[in-house]
Every structure is written in C-alpha cells, then in structure tokens.
User: Fold this.
Amino acid sequence: MKNWAPVFSVASLLLPLAAADCDKFTFLNGTDASGQTEYYNNDFTISSYINCTADTATQVSGNKTVCEYQPYGAGLVAHPQIRNVTISDDDDREDIFELVQEMISDKASATTNFNLTIVMNHTAGITSFGVGDSGYVAFMPMMRCWEGTLSDCDDDDNLEGKTARVCGLKWLDEFQSSKDAGVQTYDGTEYFVGTDTGNGIQSSPPYSDVANQATNDDDDSAATRSLVSGMAVMIALMSLACAVLL
Assistant:
C-alpha cells in the first residue's frame, strides 16, 4: 500500500501543469476586444546604404536623374511583447499570449501573430531614388495591443492583479495566417531614411538565413498541454483505482 504514495505525488505535480498561469485578463477602460494598433518598438533596415549621384544614376527619359535599387527578401526577426510586468520564462509568456488570444475578437485574433519569435520575409517596395538622395530603406511593423489586469494567477507567479499591455505582430489581413511563414505579409510602414554616411548601417540578413529562428507556438503549446493533461488524467485514474482496490 505504501508503494503507491509516489503515484499520488507525481499526479499532484502534473495536474497544475495542465492549467495556465493566469485564467483571466480583464480589459482596462479604453481597451476592448478589438485592441489598439501601434508601431513596433524599432524599425528594420531592409536595404544597403544608397548614395545616388549623377554618375551612378540610371538613364531615365534621357536624363540621369534616378538610381534603381535591386531589393531582396529581408529576414526581420521580431517578438510579441508583454509590457508593464516582467515575465522572463518563455512558457509563462506563451501562457499569457494564449490567454489574451482567447479573450480578443475573432477578427483581431485572425490578424495578430503571438508566436514568441516571428521572422518576416519583407522585400522593399521602394526601389528608386533621385540624384542627391543618400540613405537606406526601413520598415516599421505594426502591432495590435491590449491592456488589462491579470487575475486568478498561480501564487508563485506574482502576477495577480498586475496590469499588462500585451501586443502581437499585425498581419496585413485575415488570410495571412493560413499561408506559409515565408510568404505572409505584415502590416507596417516603409520609408526612406536620409543620412550622409553609411557608417554603422547594418542591413537585415536574407530571410533564408534566419527563417529557422521562427517558432510555431500554437502547435507546440497545444501538443504539450495535451500530453501533460493526458499524463495527469492517466496517473489520477491509476491512483483512484489503486485507492478503490486498497
């Protein structure tokens, strides 16, 4: 009979893993299920340094007035954000993103990517520059954010009652999520940044060089939750059966 004690112990450890760290996210005033759009916290350089002079300009209408740039598929590595609270563990961050995704509107959920690491494949649309222009092309992605209060949290998380602003990267439309990652299009603004020198300008790497950094947290977390839940239920049933027999 004493040999079954560890079974109860293991079951008690596994059962809490099947639940999220916090069960509620209550929108604050001014925030609703649709969320609010804002820019990502930094832009990405998606071209090399360009210095368009009369000597380098292409022939346009008989006048050397325009330089043309050959764009490439830049790999932009970005991350959704949880602001106002510090959550360093990736599993805990994943739980918060999943919780918020369950609370937001269907349209917002279909156009927001909460994967922990997102790699965008972005090709510059700005491809020509006038003589006298010098600088580079940049892209600033858009995010969709929700601000709310976390509650019904695990005691050891220290998140109960904390206010968090949770943001995911914004797809251009609801059709992007069903596409392969390398052809998904993200909402944002592209612009030319003028500068007289190319010193310190680091172009983003090609998409193919960083594509493997992307995560698909929906599939991974669902599989993990299913596995943990199944193990917990199985052990609990074994424990119950043993108790009945004894």
